[in-house]
Every structure is written in structure tokens, then in C-alpha cells.
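I need you to check the entry underneath: sequence plus C-alpha cells. Let me know what the C-alpha cell row says about the fold.

>
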Amino acid sequence: MYIQNNCPSYSLKEDVIEWVEQILQPDYEQINCKLIKRIKNLSHWNDIHTNQIVSPSDVGIHNTLANNHCLYFIDFEYAGLDDLSKFAADWVLQPKYIFNKNEESKLIQYLCKYFYSKIRDSWVERYYDIKPLIALKWCLIMLNSARNGTLTQKQFNMMKSYYQATKRLDN
């Protein structure tokens, strides 16, 4: 484990390692097992390369402007082609504003309607496949400062609260 071997000694090190090993790692393994069991029925992944959109990557309300009841992206520094499922999952699970179930449903319905003639709806199944992995990705991003020993207790608690919130969204 990178944290275990490479971060300086500090008070949260053991707590972070324990949390990752007892919570994140088993969660990842469970998600992986579910996907492996579904492997025979993953035809919705066949068109991933033909259903790409331009994605701003750094998604969130903080990088949009509202004008005439529309949202406009303003930060395309790290933009690129991406699958709509990842774009939607990043929006729904953005740590600064996690969607509730109703908001998630509305976003998916809107995207299905907006992209109806352009992209097959197979992206929705991919969305539900990758959503738990995207939540884990955000947790790891939030834990990144543990590598150099600068993670604070407040940041660690915020990440754990985020993790719990994403679990409630799945139930």
C-alpha cells in the first residue's frame, strides 16, 4: 500500500491505513465481484467508444454559470472525450455536492432525453456499473494528501462522511 510505505509518520497515518484496509478495500473487492458475476451480460459496454461526449472532467456546480435557466460549463482545462456514464457519475457523486436520489433520477432522465437521438441508452447501465467505483475514486482523491502527511482530521472526517453519503445513495 502506497500510504503505508511512503508517507511520513503523522497522527492519522494508522487511522487512514486501517480505514482503507477495512472499508475501501473490501468495498472495492465486493464491487469487483458483482461486476465479474455480470460479465456475461455486459453487452451495454460494446458501444462505449461510439458513445463518447466532450466532458469538462472537473465537473460540478462550481465550474458552471447559470444564464436564462441554462447551465454553461466554464472550466475545460482538463476536458476530453468521455463516456456519458462517467460524466453523469462524476456529477452525481461530486464531493462538494452529492445529488440525492431525486436529483440523480432527474439528471439521468434529462440526459436520456437530451441525448436520445445521439447516444443509445446503454450508457445508463454502464452508469450503474461504474457508480460505486467513481465513489471510491473520489474517496481516494480526498485521501491523496495522506501520502505526504498533510491530511487533517477534518478532511478525513469529511471523506468518511462523503463515503457514508454515497452508500445511502445506493440504498
Notes: Residues 10 and 150 are 9 Å apart (CA to CA). The chain has a mean pLDDT of 83.
